[in-house]
Specification:
582 residues, alpha/beta, 12 strands, 40% helix
């Protein structure tokens, strides 16, 4: 190929092969032309005549053709580059750009929290604190749409299928934890974020960390009751190894070796020791939590279990013994931020207001509203983090509604009053769970039990000053835990004029909230799986690849699982949840 700016030396048409040949020789004098032996009278011929003779065209024509060829070659190159670029963007470029940019995703799940519960909590806070009628909660300000919650086998989902829809972006059956309808493992957004983007990952809950929602992001079992196996997944005992860098919540009993007074495992494995052998730092107290440096990643991976079973309801919580949801969320944000400070990876964090749901299962409006307000506090903490870190998106959604809750109740056959009374909830000091645990099996002296209910339970713990003899006697004599809780629920709910349709879940759509990077993309009414899709697209993840890696992992627990008599029953009656009753 000729060098730029170097003239070609022509070879006569009468050459041996009959073609015009070009070489890269440089003509430094007119003698070079004479050496071709073609011109006997050089002085009478111009350069232009040479071009016409040897190229069949004038020098000007050749120059115009050369410019034309350059122009069309440039056009062709631009078209090729454009087509290749479009294909690259379509097939992999967008994902590449997403993976190359630091993003944080914070998914917050308000378990069992329906639209009526948001209304009730807003009314309660506005009325009790004397706020303006136009008061908006931290969630009201970021409402973008709604989520439809059905599972693959029922119009009314449970938490396991609801969480699996978010984590695997897949509808599955009620009870499914990170498995598809055929009971095969499905890759989760948490696992993909860890493996494909090298993101830090975390779970913060107020339930057992092995419960349905956190389990669906970190484990793969055919039924939610298999919490022993879920715990094994969470410390890395499966093909992918440890996927969760930080876990805060309750549920220590599923990591403690059984049989033991503090254990609820059905085998003798000591998962706390196994976790430490896998590099985890383990915490089990408020002092351990307070000692954590929120600006340091040195403690990761981290397993903090601050209760044997679920953490206490906010209404019962002793702040000297257990951190709040907002405190755990804030500390998790600090630690995960420190872990990703000098990287391009970011973090994925799932935060659950777990016990909003459990209070609704018990039809306990006073505990329910305090759990919602505690969740709002966590929402405010995350919103502040998003404001300071604009490449972060917050998504808040419920897996389902619980209780068939209504902000109204008809108390008799006559036409009902149009009112409800938030002030009936204000003086309540303890949850129905706490009160019932103090009543069941405490004494066989019926007179003392009656006095205890009359003088302590109703007036001091439940804020009820007008309890009738019939109400007091019924509570004092009831020995069945479910019936006792129903009596206590009726006493509070009637005075507040709040209604409940069920102790289970309902099929109602739930509110969808979002704040931060690309939050507008979630506007409108969505299937719950769309939220998983949003996370996948935001981070450029491939869940199918994760699914292929875990397809042979164990999904059935070797030992018997602890079954629930009805949804939430084990959560209320299990002995590990009430250690003082052993």
């Amino acid at each position: 190929m000729a060098q730029a700016g170097v003239p070609y030396a022509a070879v006569p048409r009468g050459s041996s092969d009959g073609r015009v040949h070009f070489s890269d020789e440089v003509h430094e004098s007119d003698a070079d032309v004479e050496d071709n032996g073609l011109f006997e009278h050089r002085e009478t011929m111009e350069v232009a005549d040479n071009d016409t003779l040897y190229y069949g065209m004038s020098l000007g024509t050749r120059r115009r053709m050369r410019k034309g060829r350059v122009f069309w070659a440039t056009v062709v190159c631009l078209v090729v580059v454009s087509v290749v670029g479009i294909f690259w963007l379509y097939f992999d470029g967008i994902n590449w750009m997403q993976r190359s940019k630091k993003r944080n995703v914070i998914l917050m799940v308000s378990d069992g929290f329906g639209p009526a519960s948001e209304t009730m909590a807003r009314n309660f806070v506005q009325q009790v604190h004397g706020l303006p009628v136009g008061y908006q909660s931290p969630l009201d300000e970021i409402l973008v749409g709604s989520s439809r919650t059905r599972s693959s086998d029922s119009l009314v989902t449970d938490s396991a299928a609801g969480a699996t829809a978010l984590s695997c972006r897949m509808k599955s059956y009620n009870g499914a934890i990170g498995v598809d309808p055929e009971r095969m493992p499905c890759g989760t957004v948490l696992e993909a974020a860890k493996l494909q983007r090298n993101m830090a990952t975390g779970l913060v809950v107020t339930s057992r960390i092995t419960h349905a929602t956190p389990g669906a992001f970190s484990a793969h079992v055919t039924h939610r009751d298999m919490e022993d196996l879920i715990a094994e997944y969470q410390i890395g005992n499966y093909s992918l190894g440890p996927m969760v860098d930080l876990m805060f919540g309750g549920g220590r009993c599923h990591f403690e070796a059984g049989p033991h007074v503090n254990s609820c495992r059905t085998d003798a494995r000591d998962l706390l020791s196994e976790a430490r052998a896998n590099g985890f730092r383990t915490l089990d107290s408020r002092s351990d939590f307070d000692a954590l440096d929120a600006n340091s990643a040195q403690s990761l991976p981290l397993l903090g279990t601050f209760a044997a079973s679920h953490m206490d309801y906010e209404i019962d919580r002793d702040p000297k013994q257990q951190p709040s949801l907002a405190e755990m969320t804030n500390k998790a944000l600090g630690i995960l931020s420190a872990a990703t400070k000098n990287t391009n990876s970011g973090f994925f964090l799932m935060v659950e207001g777990s016990r909003i749901d459990m209070a609704a299962h018990t039809n306990d409006p006073a505990a329910h509203v305090r759990e919602i307000v505690a969740y709002w506090d966590a929402i405010s903490a995350v919103r502040a983090y998003v404001d300071a870190n604009p490449d972060t998106v917050l998504i808040s959604v419920s897996d389902h509604e619980t209780g068939g809750f209504s902000v109204a109740k008809q108390l008799g056959p006559e036409y009902p009053e149009y009112l409800w009374n938030p002030f009936a909830l204000e003086p309540v000091k303890h949850s129905i769970e706490y009160v019932s645990s103090k009543l069941l099996g405490q004494t066989t002296d019926s007179a003392k039990q009656y006095e205890f209910v009359r003088d302590t339970v109703f007036p001091k713990w439940m804020g009820i000053k007008d309890a009738s003899h019939k109400e007091i006697l019924a509570v004092a004599q009831e020995a069945n835990s479910v019936q006792l809780r129903q009596l206590l629920s009726t006493a509070i709910s009637d005075r507040a004029q709040l209604g409940w349709a069920t102790h289970g879940h309902s099929a109602v759509d739930v509110n969808l909230y979002a704040y931060g990077k690309d939050a507008h993309l979630l506007r409108g009414s969505h299937e719950n799986t769309d939220i998983g899709d949003f996370i996948v697209q935001a981070l450029g993840l491939n869940l199918e690849l994760i699914t292929s890696l875990i397809k042979n992992d164990k999904v059935v627990q070797d030992t018997p699982a602890i079954k629930q008599a009805w949804m939430g029953r084990r959560d209320l009656d299990a002995p590990e949840h009430h250690p003082h009753m052993h």
